[in-house]
Please model this.
Amino acid sequence: MKSMFIIGLLLASVLLLVACAPRAQAGDGGIVQEVRVTARQFQYSPARVVVRATQPVKLVVTSADVDHNIGIPDLYIDQRIESGNTVTLKFTPKAKGEYKFYCLTPCGMGHDGMVGTLVVE
Model:
């Protein structure tokens, strides 16, 4: 009788853990789109990134040389990336279109030309 109670308690515990476990979330049943971008004087690589609208994006940006920034004003994104570090940004683009991204941290003489494009299809 005691062993049945322990087995029942263990089974209930396992079911509770499974029911409360975190689940991956994605918009419209899609999966998270992971995009990796490297910032270096005076460019982003790749400079053109394509993602799908209404699906979550995980944007992983690494600064290869000096301090940089990635700013996508139309999506309210403004993130500094310190030299040699990586940052991860998560967002879900709602509207299709082309969004420019810029380095908003002065990084040298070619800084003004450091521009990329996020294409949301």
